[in-house]
Amino acid sequence: MDFLVALAEGFIGMFQAGGKTFMGLFTGIIPTLIVLITFVNAVIRLVGEDRINWLAQKSTKYLILRYTLFPILAVFFLTNPMAYTFGKFLPEKQKPAFYDSAVSFVHPITGLFPHANPAELFVYMGIADGITKLGLSLGPLAIRFFIVGIIVILIRGIVTEQITLRMMKRREDLQDSSLENIGA
């Protein structure tokens, strides 16, 4: 009998813990995200969506800027996870690669700009603790982390874009062959 009571309490406890987590999100990051989304949308409406799209197209015209400058600006200004919304200014075929670049940069930016991803600060601080115990400065670590992050997001963006283009081409070829089979 005690086993069944413990099982029932554990079962409902799992949902209670989920509810506490949900309320933590609901009173923590969700209001911040809603206000940030509202602000960004207001700025887009004030400036004009056409102008924002033009600026995004110009700043992402070149592969190197698309997977370095654009994700850096997104993560710096909008922080994690709002930064991914910058992808809405890109053509569909570039969105997965932008997301890959942006999500890969939310950690390397932390050493220089902790506001960009405070949830990941504990990882950087763990490394930083070891460096300071050795009597070394954190500045060079943060700069190297940032530079390596830029190199990584560029590589990931290029590779993911190529994979996406191949997959889209393959899907188009399959659709074309299916239409040919139906028409035959």
From TrEMBL:
UniProt KW ATP-binding keyword: no
Cross-referenced InterPro entries: PTS_IID_sorb
Cellular compartments per GO CC: membrane
Pfam families, per database record: EII-GUT
Gene Ontology process terms (BP): phosphoenolpyruvate-dependent sugar phosphotransferase system
Record keywords: Membrane, Transmembrane, Transmembrane helix
Transmembrane segments: 22-44, 64-84, 141-159
Name of the featured protein: PTS sorbitol transporter subunit IIC
Organism: Mesobacillus subterraneus
